[in-house]
Amino acid sequence: MMEQVHLAGEDEDELYSGYNDYNPLFDTENLQQDEGFQNAVKTSHGRRPPMTATRQFAIQRGQMGTTAGARLKTGLVSSMGARPVTGIAAADGSVARPMTAVKAAGYSSTGRGQQFDPMNQASKGPAPPLETKNEDTPEEKIKNLEKKVNGLIEESCLANSRGEFSLALEKAKEAGRKERMLGRQRDELFNGEQVNLDQTYSVLFNVANQYEANEMYQEALNTYQVIVKNKMFSHAGRLRVNIGNIYFKQRNFPKAVKYYRMALDQVPNTHKEMRIKIMKNIGIVFVKMGQYSDAITSFEHIMSEKPDYETAFNLLLCYYATGDRDKMKKTFQQLLGVDLNLDDEDKYLPHPDDKHANLVLEVIKNDALREKEKEAKEGMERCLMAAAKLIAPAIEQSFSAGYDWCVDCVKQSAFTDLANDLEINKAIMYLKQKEFSQAVEVLKTFEKKDSKCASVAATNLSFIYFLQSEYQLAEKYAEVAMTADRYNPAALVNKGNCLFVQGELEKCRDYYQEALRTEASCTEALYNLGLVNKKLGHLEASLDCFLKLHAILRNNAEVLFQIASLYDMLEDTPQATEWFTQLISIVPTDPAILSRLGELFDNEGDKSQAYQYHYESFRYFPSNIEIIEWLGAYFIDSQFVEKAIHYFERAAVIQPNQVKWQLMIASCHRRSGNYQQALETYKRIHKKFPDNIECLKFLVRLCSDLGLKEAQEYATKLKKAEKAKELREQRASSGTRRTGSGRSARGGSAVSRYGNTRLFCRG
């Protein structure tokens, strides 16, 4: 135990020694007399960085010390040992503190409170004002004029983009005038050395474009020729494509091909896209010219270089025109194999667990790139459907076999969704050929397929049965279509039509309204809703429907007629006249509309306008008895009885057994003073209608006025005819009384049988 005890020896330091000593760094009493400290303050050694946290803590306690002071006070050294002496000796022989090579910027131990001015700018005073630019120099004038020309070009392009073509052309011409003025000034100042070819090219090119936009093709061609023939413009030969486009618009196809080929020679092989576009133009021109073999050569070259669906479709059209079945099949398969370079559709599907991905999806699913992809896909599908419709009857013995081949090819391609659409088109082709049973058979095959196809097929079946007046089957398949897809507006419209035929107007109106809630632009539902409201007597609601439809279908004759008819029923004659006038501008040869418009003007007392429209109606439909009668009466009222004879003669031809037209002709002759002709006409009438009392009266009067012996003979016949008429009237009145008494005796049974007959007819 004792071996582990340590006893302090006499030579060892005392255990509690050193506690009364203090650190000389904290001694601040003799700092003013410390030469080393004062020299350190005056040199860069004293400009130390900011104090650390430890030193700051010491200062907060009101203590300060330096190593120099401690060293002079006690002669102690730091834990790092003695500090080496560096620097230059002072004048008194002592060693100065180290000095830096560069004096600190803006800081000094002397001159505190002075303004910070490292660049010595205060002594120079304020900066002089900027010199004003002299805009009167020729160079500045030219620069300003160039800016004005560029501004006019920009304004012209913006006006063209807004569709203001006349304003765009005016701005382009003004830019051309200023550019020519600019060229003259350059020639005067620099002797033609400084020429801005780029601006000249821009001005001429813009003027040519604006001429073309305003359909001033000859002026555009002249301007393009100026550019093309100027050798100073590099790559100007490509503008021959624009010249070819103008000739194409003018249907001058040989010159269009010529300039397209010249432009193709100007484009190097490295510009592959440009060459393909020009080749496509050449092929289209050859199609317009009927030179299908040359067009096939161009399109085949494009398909070998960079195939696209438009070129493939055009190539298929050429093979169809030449009747090459095998090439049609091959090209259809090439069309199916065209790569649209579209992204996978799955990337647009929502992610249930990734909110960030869903936010990104909301942004990109309807952006410009997505719309471009949709447009390309829709164009491809449209070409495929049109190609299948076109070649199906030509590639096989029957169009049914041709459609089957196309459907098989589509099912093996990336466009499998179009196979069902082709099947439905097949049924529609049967309908066009009036093979209804075949169409129904094809459509019924969709009953067990997916809901969308089943709904479309059932909708078509309902439409077919409705046209065949099989309303029960039509209603059945309309319900099948609604079951497969409740939001199918066509199915809702078909269901409403079936109820309309059955007379259930309130129910059919509900279906039309539901169809409109599903698809606000369903024109069939809106039109039928207007008809239902009109039939129910809700004229204001019906008018509102047709006005909405007019905003969708501008210049539709049926819609305009309904609007005009409703205003007429509402007795708003000015509005009815205005809408009928608009309708006449669309269907100027409709005699019924012309006649109705004439009646409106006649009711308003405007006889001249009424005559104009009645006469136009007569021109397009000269067999309308009502119009003929109105025109004859108009000329009689206007004291032009000779012209009225022409219309009554036409009426007599149309209705030869109607005596009134013959009498009107004779009356016109009599009114015009041509009594002899009137007498001859009355004699012909009497010969054909011997019992006509009115004719005999006029014969008696004319013969008496002319002093003819035949007057007595006609007077005798007149008395006999009047007696015969009285006897007929007496017999008719007595027979009516006997019939009435018989009905009184058998009233119950007769009325009940008549009533049953009416009910049966309604059923």
From TrEMBL:
UniProt xrefs under SUPFAM superfamilies: TPR-like (SSF48452)
Composition bias of kind Polar residues appears in 107-123
RNA-binding as a keyword of this entry, yes or no, is no
Q: Which Gene3D superfamilies does the entry link to?
A: Tetratricopeptide repeat domain (1.25.40.10)
Q: Name one GO molecular function term.
A: kinesin binding
Q: Give me the TPR repeat coordinates as residue ranges.
A: 237-270, 276-309, 557-590, 625-658
What's this protein's name? Answer: Intraflagellar transport protein 88 homolog
Organism listed in the record: Patiria miniata
Q: What is the lineage of its organism?
A: Eukaryota, Metazoa, Echinodermata, Eleutherozoa, Asterozoa
